[in-house]
Design a protein that fits this description.
The protein is mainly alpha-helical and 275 residues long. The protein has eight helices and four strands. The chain has two domains: 76 residues; 131 residues, Cytochrome Bc1 Complex, Chain D, domain 2. The protein has a two-stranded antiparallel sheet with strand order 1-2. Strands 3-4 form a two-stranded antiparallel sheet. The radius of gyration is 38 Å and the shape is flat.
Amino acid sequence: MSSFREMFRLRRAIHIRTVMPGLVPGIHVLLNSPIRQTWMAGTSPAMTRNKRLASRSRLALIVVALFGLSIGTASAAEPGHFGYGTVPTAEQIAGWDIDARGEDGVGLPPGKGDVTTGEKVFAEQCAACHGTFGEGEGRFPKLAGGQGTLKDDRPELTIGSYWPFAPTLWDYINRAMPMPTPHTLSADDVYALTAYILNLNNIVPNEFVADRDSLPKVRMPNRDNFIWTDPRPDTAAKPCMSACVDPAAVTISSTAEGKDLTPRTTGPLDDMQPK
């Protein structure tokens, strides 16, 4: 029975080609069974099995050696790297480097656009959401008007009432508009839209031409009302989880009561009296 089983296994193994996927990329070790030749020559099944195991052991050692060699080479070439991805080209970096700086307009690309052209582009690309004259449609935001409302209970944040720099208006339109299909407008179209929206807010005249030189010179009405330096002092508080402060030493130096920090609305909070 034992001999019969060995003959059956050998008969199946005659047509088997064992493939070991290489541990080193691109290397595969093929083990073609030599059983057919040795069996036909009269070698016993036990001897054939021993030779087969010895052959596989030698090939396994070769694979391990090649694998170690490849690791050593990669480590020596690029220490600290996993080998993922590729180094970006200058062209690929330029495709992502599209920001325009507000105060001086650094990053604005070549091109230009006037108010008349901007009116046409606005009607095609923007009016459906922002209205023909920037008044806003439905719940979409207004782009024009609102000057002098920032201290009101319901301030209107528009390009004319709130925006600090003209170059960043170009930057925002170029990045995100029109909302369904951003990055589809040419630089000239974005310049024209910027000129038209500034004109809607009476910031630039009808003959204004927007480009990389003229936009940084536009003085936005609300520019000086932005705080560019954080006035809050640095703190050096140390982390503490228990028994940090003596409760008896804690005092309230001031409160927000009576300082009109929150606009009046309609509701029960307006009628609440301070304790």
